[in-house]
Each structure stands twice: as C-alpha cells, then as structure tokens.
Write a structure and sequence with these properties.
heterodimer; B: mainly beta; seven-stranded mixed sheet; four-stranded antiparallel sheet; 49% strand; globular
C-alpha cells in the first residue's frame, strides 16, 4: 500500500507554538498533498508538493518532502486556536489519493 | 473562489433503498472523484472519472455503485441497494489535470449518508 501514515496521532500545543507532524509512505508518488479537516466537516486542501520538490511554503505552513526516506513533514508556525483540526497527508499516484489516518492537533488558548 | 458543492449535506435512507449523491465540480476541471470516510476511519478512494468514463476504481466500488455525469455540471454517485456498511461521509473532488501536470484535488463539503 502507498498510504501515507501520519505521526504523531495526536498533538496538543499552546497557542503561538509550532506544530510539526510527519508522514511516511511506501511507494513512489507523483506528489503529496496535505489536507485539514475540522471535526465532521470537509477536507480543505493546504498544500501540494511535487515529487521533484524538497520544500514548500504557504503562509504559516512549511512542507518538506524527502523521497529517499519516503517521508514528508508539515510545520505550522505560530499556531492559533483556529488551527485545531485533523491534518492528513495524501499520496498521489496516478491521480488517486491515498490518505493516512491523520494527526489531530489541539491548540490551547 | 470556485468550490466543489455537494447535495444533500445529510441523507438518511433505509437499507435496500437507492440513493443518489450529487456533486457540482469546479467548472473548468477535467477529473472527478468520489471518496468516502467511514466514521473514525481513513478517507478511502472510490472512483475517478475522466472524459465521461471511469478511469480507475477501488475494490470498494462494486456493482452496487455507479457514477454519471448527466449534464455539463453535475457528477453523481448512485448506490443501488444500500447496506448498513455504506453509512459514511462521501466526498466528491475535482482537479484540472492538464497533461502531465499533477494538480490539486479540491474536495466538496461531503454528504453524510446514514443507512438504517
């Protein structure tokens, strides 16, 4: 399976702190995408990193990709209460996304 | 900003009944997808659709499932005879996918299906 698997499963941080979560996968990919899901709601796309890219930034988000280790990380800097959500990595092989189980992030005010 | 929309937001049905879940993908997108998420579990790929035909489907997408693009805007998922285990959140997604460029998949808000 080429599913992404996130680590840790859950993360609790204080507002203003950084949150880092990791994703590992098993096979070659076209790209890797990170999504956010608020409880019981839809998936919001955060960032896409292509297999030939190593790092990408979008606002307070920083994503890295290491294809040799088959891993990616998502860093959220200066977290806010509104960042409380589940975060999923999804590996894209032939336009079919495989999702991991997600990291649940709780940002305490 | 363009977005994927889905109707209904919630659907309750009796086991054995047919349901049709509707999606309006982003207008200039070429690829369309259905995923589902059973409560507490991972999001799972069901099917992808391009150029008016299924391009790929998962093991979950058996003969009880079908997809259709009945007009230029809607994309539907039909479950012919629902089972209890079909209860899940169903997400539609679309992407532009031009040539070899990998593109972001944009997801709709989902339809929560409950089969009783």
């Amino acid at each position: 399976s080429q599913q992404g698997e996130e680590d840790p499963q859950a993360l609790s941080i204080q507002e203003g702190e950084n949150a880092t979560m990791n994703c590992s996968y098993k096979t070659s990919i076209n790209n890797l995408q990170w999504y956010r899901q608020n409880s019981g709601r839809g998936l919001v796309h955060l960032i896409l990193i292509r297999s030939n890219e190593r790092e990408k930034h979008s606002g307070r988000l920083r994503v890295t990709l290491d294809t040799s280790k088959k891993s990616s990380s998502l860093l959220i800097t200066a977290s806010r209460a509104a960042d409380t959500a589940s975060y999923f990595c999804a590996t894209d092989v032939d336009y079919k996304l495989s999702f991991g189980a997600g990291t649940t992030v709780t940002v305490r005010a | 900003e363009p977005e994927v929309t889905q109707t209904p937001s919630h659907q309750v049905t009796q086991m054995g009944q047919e349901v049709i879940l509707r999606c309006v993908p982003i207008s200039n997108h070429l690829y369309f997808y259905w995923y589902r998420q059973i409560l507490g579990q991972k999001v799972e790929f069901l099917v992808s659709f391009y150029n008016n035909e299924i391009s790929e489907k998962s093991e979950i997408f058996d003969d009880q499932f079908s997809v259709e693009r009945p007009d230029g805007s809607n994309f539907t998922l039909k479950i012919r005879s629902t089972k209890l285990e079909d209860s899940a959140m169903y997400f539609c997604a679309s992407s532009a996918a031009s040539g070899l460029i990998q593109e972001t998949q944009y997801f709709g808000p989902g339809t929560r299906l409950l089969v009783l």
